[in-house]
């Protein structure tokens, strides 16, 4: 990867967008900003660039999504599966078919959102489920390690619980704080960033504080209904991006 002005500007914009999503929704939608990065680097290089930057985003986000916004009963159920899933994703990184995983995750997500629309696009509160939480944590761990796309499995579990917008975002934030800290070293071992990537990483750090803060301000301006509708809308965008990545990967 050449470190040109164009590369710096595009990467900076991509990291800013991901930071903004982090502040607004607690995390899980990093894949929305990855298309920008793909303009100037391959997906694996982008993964190595983002892995440490995610930790920086998490540290900034902790200023806004404090422990009072975490749903501890859900985190207790979700986090063990997340860590195990990241370990599985690391072990199988070179053997898993990323395209097939992307397609399956996209289809599941679109079906989930489709059922929500069929119910009138309203939140129908469902009881907490230990098996669902374990599956969501495990699936999110694998997909976040393989493709930085751990958001859909977590959202599919959390959104039906009808948590307040603050608790939803705070729980999501803490979930990915643990996930990003866990997967950073494996990603760096897999990718081994060059000096140009480390330099770009240092530059992109400057985009994080303002991005997270602006996202958090947007969260404060939206009401519960708007936040949930935005989350479901972002799930559709994420699913379409995953579907495109998966299907296009089968063609030269």
In short:
The chain is an all-alpha fold.
Please, could you describe this protein's structure?
This protein has 252 residues and is an all-alpha fold. Helix content is 75%, strand content 0%. The protein has helices spanning 5-25, 34-38, 43-61, 72-91, 98-118, 130-147, 151-158, 165-191, 195-204, 208-221, 224-248. α1 packs parallel to α10, α4 packs parallel to α8 and α5 (98-118) runs antiparallel to α11.
Keywords:
single chain; mainly alpha; 75% helix
Task: Give the termini distance in whole angstroms.
Answer: 22 Å
Which stretches are low in confidence, meaning pLDDT under 50 for 5 or more residues running?
Answer: none
Mean pLDDT comes to 86
In terms of DSSP E residues, the strand content is: under 5%
Q: Please give the count of helices.
A: 11
CA-based gyration radius: 17 Å
Order of helices and strands: HHHHHHHHHHH
Helix content: over 70%
Largest sheet: none
Number of strands: 0
| Silhouette | globular
Could you give the topology of this structure?
Blueprint: H1 5-25, H2 34-38, H3 43-61, H4 72-91, H5 98-118, H6 130-147, H7 151-158, H8 165-191, H9 195-204, H10 208-221, H11 224-248
Helix pairs in contact: 1-3, 1-10, 3-8, 3-9, 3-10, 4-6, 4-8, 5-11, 6-7
